[in-house]
Structures are given as structure tokens and as C-alpha cells.
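User: What would this chain look like folded?
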Amino acid sequence: MYWLICSLIISAMMGVLAVLDNMPTSPLLMEIANVSIVPLSLMALAIVLIILVQFNIPSVNISRSSQKSSSYSPLYPKLLCRIAHHLVVAILAIGLLIGSTMQALLSHQQAEMKAVTEPMRLQALVTVEGISDSVYDANTESGYRQVAVISHISPLVSELASQDLDDITVGFLGDGKNSLSENSSNKDMSHDNHSNNSLDSSGNGSEEIEYRVLLNAYPKKSLSTTSSGSDQFTKLNHLQPGDQLFMSLTLAPLAISEQALNNPSGFDSYRWLRGRHIDGVANILAVSTLPVTDGESSNISLASDSYLQRLRTRIDQGRWQLRQHFYTDWRDKTTAEQQAKAVTLSLLTGDRSLINRDTKDLYQLAGISHLLAISGTHVLFLAIVLAGGAVLIFDRFCPVVYRYIPRWQVRWWVMIGAAFVYALFTGFDVPAARTAWMLLAIGLVRLTLLPISTMRVLFALAVLMAWLDPYVLWQAGYWLSFIAVALLLKYEDTSYKYRQVSVFSHQAGAYKSNAINGLAKRVWMIGRRIFKLQFWLFITLLPITLLLFGKASLWGLFINLFAIGLFGWVIVPLNLLAGLFYLLSPTIADRIWALVSAIVASLHELMIWLTSLPSLSEAWLYTPVNMAILLMVLLSILPWLLPRGFISRWLVLPPLTMLMMTVYANQQSLTMTPTLYILPTGDQYISAALLQYPITNPENTNNKSVSWLFLADHRPKATRTMPSNLTVEKLSTMLEQQLGSLSINKLEGITVQSGRVGLTDTLTTDDKHADINTISSELLPLTVAQLNQHLPINQYWQAGRFDRWSVLQRSYKVASQSKSKSDIKVQGCEQGKTWQLPNGDLSIQALTGWRTIDDESVWDCTLAIDTGLPIQVLKYNAADPLRSLPAAVQTLPSNLSFLMPNVAATTSRLVLNVDTHQRVWQMWELLCSTEPLFDQAATGQTPINPITTEPITINQRIMPSNITWLGHSTSHITANVLGLQSINEIMTYDDKALAVALSIDDNFQSKFSY
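Assistant: Here's the prediction, encoded as C-alpha cells.
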């Protein structure tokens, strides 16, 4: 019953938080949201419930006389007492459940009261809180991310430079409590307000409004090699916790969960930010060079802080100073040396700001990314070492202490103090906090001699942390930490029982074996036990990992066997030892850290070699997991979690069979339905679409389906737009993960539909932004080259000219240090080019693209996909591909049935449009629209390619019944072209309406009637 109540409480709180995201804020609850007595009331209620359940021990009659007398006593009072006892327990349990949901509701309302509701541009006093998540580095395109509190907010009525902010700082220090009204009331402005979270109506700043935001500053691509913005943003790395300075910012509210999930990786940024109690996201525009160092002004935020908050700031300053120590001479080191030191720092303080994306991906692929986090092992190891040292000191110099305090209590108090201080030093994340609180709880249980198991303490601690902060339930570390410890405790209990049986059964024969055989047998038993433990954890945590992250590395089962031992017994102890020596002698600490960095660097080289193997590079498991699958997994392992003999373990077969059938059906549904997935890329102009088409007669091929990937850059050539912030590594990594989640391990072809001048030397241009255009031109082709290193690709179509492709591919392989010898040949994507399946069910042909013309504006290649089965177009959901939703459709009137009255309409056509200049469709109207292909086929004529003068093969018996157009909302296509193509459905990559489609009326189709 104990674990059942805890599970119901946590499930109810999660359900409330999930439902409240889509509900409006209640004014009544906003008034009582500040009440903080709910967690205390729940704790008191839980203590009463535990006492009633724990001490419900039936009385035992010793003498026979008492037994005889009791037999004559009426049974009704005892029965009534038992019923009353169970009724009180049930009422208390229901009260805990209701109180927990109320706590989740109040926490949500309190967060909504503080949240940013509208985007705004402002100037504010920024107070740095904690250390930054990353450092600003324009060379590696790393951005600055920092949690901070903004106050003294004023609307930004004009662009401010650093000098302007310096003047504001001087005025603020001179006035003491300057409201900044002098800098915001010179111009009239209108600003929409939202309840009490907006600025005042006069436009002046407010000293009372505070937001806890996530500051962002990322390097921007610029034509100039030097930028003043980059110089001032570099100074952000020198900000330490507690610093205050003025900044100009663009403040935006948090995206709702549905919007946050519409990103390439499926990462729910909304829940991640809410779990950290972030009210909004702020992009830095300008930074003051003068910090607010005046004593009175710097005490504005510290005056209301508690002692623990000030202590936390001091500890964070120590973390920042240690990071700066590691960051010394950073640019003089190689990338391998930098990342070895970055991992060493992460293992010591949990600071991952110096770890780059490649190293994180390396640890993820190896399945040991959990080793980068500060776990309970780090905290427990340091606590044990310090407690042992304290006991040795007392034993030698002050043994009289043990007259008043037992030895185990001395060790316990030292362990608690060390655990909490180190947990605070590492950020007090869930694993470290859980370890510190468990040490305290287990010590109290032993001190009070309560008959409470460690498993119950773990359950109680999980519920207690959820009561104190319900949003901790949205953190992946909470679930992985508590579930992993619970599984370890369960495994330890089970293995201990079997070891006892093994010891008693083999005790007689143990004395007869010699020392060598005994040592070998002991090593074998330890190795087998470690493998069983690792296998147990991997299998049981696999569904949770897939549910939280969407993927899991299968090779992690084997790499963890030696990696956990290396980190737990060598790297982490040496690292913590160096951290202790750093307080006494930094020179000795640096030597130990140099040894640790050398070990980590060697480990990285081994991991890079392993991940370069073809078998290991394909070790990702992307099986979609939802709550139904998770429930079936829980039912499958439930007989092993319960005591032996409680229920038959043969009952695992029905849920296990259902689980296998569900997973197989999910995989088949991804490959057996003709589907075009619109893949998110994180750039509104860059599109990616994946076509999956099943092969109905696979006798001549081993493939059950065929897949094509279509990439395009829709930035208009005649309009100046911001260059893309995507890189080849980032885009290719996103596409690899998305393809893997859709069970794609081979591509028939990739088509880059946008033609750019950067891939050719045969066309000169006077474009002032030629260098940026060259970079954007190389993005998609180099992404193809990167994908070719991991996926077999049969064909590569490229729009426009590509005479630089061979040199570009070789230089990229040298720059990326790729050991793969496979090169992919490029084919031109130009008007008239076709490809089709042998059975004719699927054909792809290019409608536009004329690379022989010396004009980049007519190189874009629009494709027409003709299929025997209708294709569903879905917006890919990275969090759950099985729940991908259909794309929004604009319906147009069509006269296709009148064009071909005697032809069976059993096929469909999907037009993938790319036109970055209006000349593309102007050229098509001049060369290809005088007699549309459908009109030619309908009248029995053979369509002719106007460029190659070769006939185009089209199945005249099967004509499209539905023609869908998919492109970008900035398309230059005209109403006339839509009519000539007989388009009756329109979809866009960016979910915006196509303007020209709105202007089409019913009279437009009259010109095509017979």
C-alpha cells in the first residue's frame, strides 16, 4: 500500500501539471497561490498516516485464560475498531492525494503569475544568478546562456549602445533608487499591459517587477571580420554570480509545450525552462561596461535574500572561480586537450559549459552521457572520505568525544555536512540532492530505531521533493535517479538472498579449493554480478530512456561495463582528491588534474575509434515509446519486482507478447503507409521532406519501401534576409536522428532543389553578399556529404551547377577528418529528369530547373511525385513520430475530372515547389505550359521535353486524381501556373497561407474548360 499511495500522488501531480498547461489562470487561485503552508500540511498528514500504518500491531494474548476470556468477549468492538482504523487511513490517503493535486495547482498558478506574457524590448538591471550554462565563443559558434533576475525595467524606445548604458549606470548610482524614468519618458509610446506583469501606463520603469529569465547571446554571421557586438558579448564570460549591470534586452514569453515540441530534436524546452523556474527568455542587445558596484545599489537584491541564498551565491562564485582556473590559456590548447579539461571540470562541479556539441554527442553515442552528470556516487564518495578522515582525527587527537557522541553519529554528521555542501557546490541537482537527503533520512531512521526500510525512505523522499517543487517531475534526472536507485536496491535485496543460499550450499567445498582457483572463481563471480547488474539496469531503464529522450544507444550496455569502473574507481576519486588539494595547494591540484585530463583524453580517443566502426555508428534505437508501451513494460517486469511467489512469473507472457506486437506494429506503420514527412530544421527558410513509399511487389528487391529526402533553401534571391544559423554538423545530426526515429537506414536518393552560385566557378556575380551566399550554398550539399558517411545513398540530385562538388567533398572530408572512402556522385536536377520504380507505382520528375542558362534565378528544381497510392503529408513530431499530425491544407477548385473524363483517376501527384525567384515559373510558362502534360497524355500524344527533345514516359492509363502543391509561403508562383498545373490542394512548409491562393476565384478555372 505504501508504494501504491506514493505512485498515485506522483501520478496525480503530473496529471494536474499536464492539464493546467491548456487551461486559463483562475483569479481565485491567484489570490491564494502565495500560501506556503500546503507542503507543511502534507508532511504533517503523511507523518500521521505513517504512524497509524506502522504501529498497527495486533496484540498477542499470552495466557490461555486470557485467550478463553477473549473468546467469550464480543467481536463487534474489535471489528468496529478495525473498520474505523481502515477508514481513517483511507481518509488520510485521500486527503494526501487531494492536497498533492492542490499543491501542484497552486505551484502552476504561482508560476503563471510571474511568467512573461508578451514580447517586449526593454532596458533593465540584470543580476546574475549562478554560473552560465555555456560560454560565448565566436570561433566555435558557442553562445552565452545565463539564468538571471531582471529588475528596474523600462521600455526600450530606441537602440542603446554600451556607452548609453554606462550613462544609465552612472545616473543610477548617483540617484540611488533611480526609476529610469528620465530615459523612457522622452518619447510617446503605447505598450499593451497584462494584469500586474506589465509596465506602468506612463511608460516609466518599475522597480517592483522582477523576472527570472534565461539570457541568450549567440554569435551572428557578419560580413566584417570584427564586430563590436562580439567584443562586448565576449565580456559576458567574465560575469560572476551576484554581479549586477544594465543591459538592453528583447524579452519573450516561454513557448507553450506544443510549440516547443515543434523543433527538430523534439526537446521540450518549455518544460525544461519551467522546471528551472524561468519566467521568460531574453536576448541580449547591448551590455554596459560599468557594473553596478555601489554598495547601496548592490544591496538591493541582497537585502531580501535569505542566508541560504547568500550562501548559495558564495558557493556559485567558488564554482565560477574554479571554471576560470580551468579556462586559463584555453585558446592555446588543442581541441582534444580542451575537451579533456572540460569533462574533468564537469565531473568535479557539474559545470558543462566548456563541453562542446561533438563531445556530448560522443558520450551519447557511447551510452555513457550519464557519467558527465554529478551523481550520488560523487557525493557519497566525498562524504565517506571526509567522514573517514574526521574519525581518524578524533581517534588520534580527541577520543573523549566518543563519550558523548557515538562514533557512527560523528561519521554521520560529517557525511551529512559534506554531502549538502558538495551538492550545493555542484548546483544541487536532483541526483546530488537525493543523495544528501537520503543520508539525512537514513540516519534519522537509525537514530530513532524506526522499522522503516531503505526503499520506503526512497519513496518518501521522492514524494517530498515533488511536494516542495512539483515542477521537479518534469526533470529527466528526477525519474532516472530515483528509478535507478530503486532498481539497485531491489537487485541488491534479491542478489543478497541468493548469495546467502550459495554461501551455505558451497561452504564445505570452499575450504578444499586452492587459493588460485578461489581467486579466479571470485573474479568470475564479481564480473558476472557486474554484468548482470548492468544488464538489469539497461533493460529496465530502456523504456524510460526512450520515453524521455526518444533514443538510446544499444552499445551502452557493453561500454558501461568498463566506463563505470574507470570513472567510479579512478577518474572521480582522483578528481575529488585534486579538488580537496586545490583548497590547500593549487599546484599539486593542477598536477593531479593533468593526470585526470590525460586519462580522459585517452578515453576519448578510444571512444572515437569505437564510434567510427560501422557496427557501432548504427547502434541507436529509436523505437517510439508512449505511455501505453511503458505500461506494458511495467506489467512485464512487475512479477520480478514483487516478492518471489507473490504472483506467478508466467503472467509476464501476455503483456510481453502484446508489447512485442505493439512495437512491431508501430515500426510497420512507419514504413508501410505512403507518407511525406515535413521535417523541422530550426530555420524557417530551409525545408526538409522525407518520402516513404512501400513497394507492393518486392520480389525483385530486398527492400520493402523506398525513401527519398528533399532539401531546399527558400530564401528569396531578390530580398535580403538573415543568413542561416545552421551548421553542417547541426543539420546533419538532426536529420540523422529524425531518419533513425522513422526506421530509415538507407536512402534511395537525396535531392537539393535550390540552386546556388556558390557551387560553381563558371558564373560570376557582382553580389555584395557573395561570401555569405557561398556559405549558404555549401550548407545543404555538405549536409549530403555528411549524411553519406553514415547512410547508404544511391543517388544525389543537385539543382543548378555543381562543378565544384568534387573539390568541395574532398576538402570537407579532410577538414572533418573523415576516414570513410565512400564518395557520392552528383546528378543534375533539371527540367525533364525522371526516376521511377520498376513497377511504375512511384515516379519523380523535375518540372523546372535550367542550369544551362547563365542565370542563377532559373536553376531551382521543382519536383512532381506521381504515385499509385495517395500520399499523406504529415508534420513530423520529433517527440512522438507516431503522433505526427497532417499538414494544414488550402483547398482550391479543380477541373481535373473535366480534362480526363474517360481515364480512371486512381493516382495522385504531389508537387514539391522551390522558386527563389519569379523567373523560374516565367520560364516554365514560356517553355512548358503551351500544352500541359496531362492534356497531352489525355489526347493520346507523347509529351516531349523541350530541352532534350526526348519523349517523356508517362503511364496514360493512370492519371492523377488529386494534385497537391507543397512549397514555402514566400513562393513566387502565380495563379495562372496553379491553374495550368491543376492544383487543388496547397500546403506550406512554414504553416502560413499562400497569398496567391487566396486570390483565386471560381472564374479562374473557366479558361481550362472544353
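Residues 76-114 form the longest helix (39 residues). If you want, I can go into more detail on any region.
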